[in-house]
Specification:
Elements: H1 4-24, E1 34-41, E2 47-54, H2 65-74, H3 76-87, E3 94-99, H4 102-128
Parallel strand pairs: 2-3
Antiparallel strand pairs: 1-2
Helix pairs in contact: 1-3
Amino acid sequence: MVDPPRARKLSKRISQIVAHALEHEVKDPRLAFVTITDTRVTGDLQEATVYYTVLGETIDAEPDLQAAAAALNSATGVLRSLVGAGTGVRRTPSLTFVADIVPDEARRMEELLARTRESDAEVARLAAGAQPAGDADPYRAPREQDEEE
């Protein structure tokens, strides 16, 4: 039987345990810039998907996603045993790590919005000095009534 509040609590606890373990217990330098963003647990509490992002060493540096993914895959066993010890559930869920694409998509959406704003500003600039092609308002003129009506 599915218990969504229990799954939510477990996913939040798994996020906390994994984030703490990556910061304090797992000594892999490839995991220094990994941040846990979210965790989703299936309804039967058997599988957990942990979403993460990787930051670069500097603002301009590209993050090394492949190295972080390899490091997380190699540390999965240790992290799963820490999750089992920290949650107290009968069966420890298997952990799957997935790179979170939300920050990249948000950046792409911001770029699209900026281009749209520039395009709207250009259209507004062109429309400011434009004149109508015909009469100023062709629909406001009174209609002539036919003699037959």
